[in-house]
Design a protein that fits this description.
With about 210 residues, the protein is mostly helical. It is about 80% helix and about 0% strand. The longest helix is centred in the middle third of the chain and has 42 residues, at about 95-140. One of its GO terms (molecular function) is methenyltetrahydrofolate cyclohydrolase activity.
């Protein structure tokens, strides 16, 4: 499975002529890196002197960060599968009217699925941004810059996933579906932008 590959192999494939892995997979990796950095901050806070008051909270953040990291990695496979489904739909025959109808239906269903996957990734990224905020505010002060990198990775992942929502939603003919997903995405983007900026400024002020 792609998530079990050495990082060099993944990067080589990302840079290759193959369409997958692509931007969606990169977004998922960035989100996973953000969650991993939150985990590091938590691991180096729990059990440390002077952080007893936040130990239980940071242990909870650690568990949530680990879960979000695993979910983000799962998004790599989901993104590739969604892309492959779209490509397979476009490759269907269109010799007869029945073929054309079946192909059009398959394309629309595939585009909807390909919209849902990066939208779910964006939701995960916003959650990681929220955990980064706690890590920056309450985590080990020696690691506050790492909490800052965590939020920047998660924010980049959120905006990257957003691009894949936009590009796939654009091809969906069901206007109500497309508009609802884009509206949901833009709410995530607005919240993520505000939180990420606030965390970055908190980190910078405390360096």
């Amino acid at each position: 499975m792609i998530q079990d590959q050495p990082i060099q192999q993944f990067l080589d494939e990302l840079a290759s002529k193959s369409a997958t892995p692509g931007g969606g997979s990169a977004a998922a990796i960035m989100g996973a890196m953000g969650a991993a950095l939150v985990g590091m901050v938590c691991n180096l806070t729990v059990g440390k002197k002077n952080y007893e008051a936040v130990e239980a909270e940071m242990a909870d953040v650690l568990a949530r960060a680990d879960a979000l990291r695993a979910q983000s990695i799962d998004m790599i496979r989901a993104d590739i599968e969604a892309f492959d489904r779209v490509m397979a739909a476009y490759a269907l025959p269109r010799e007869t009217e029945e073929d054309k109808v079946a192909r059009s239906t398959a394309i629309q269903e595939a585009l909807k699925a390909a919209t849902e996957v990066p939208l779910a990734c964006a939701r995960l990224c916003l959650d990681i941004i929220g955990l980064s905020e706690t890590a920056a505010q309450k985590g080990n002060r020696n690691l506050i810059s790492d909490a800052g990198v965590a939020v920047m990775a998660a924010h980049a992942a959120l905006k990257s996933a957003a691009l894949n929502v936009y590009v796939n939603a654009k091809g969906v003919k069901d206007e109500a579906f497309a508009r609802e997903r884009v509206d949901r995405l833009e709410a995530l983007l607005e919240e993520g932008e505000a939180k990420a900026h606030a965390v970055f400024e908190t980190v910078r002020a405390n360096l």
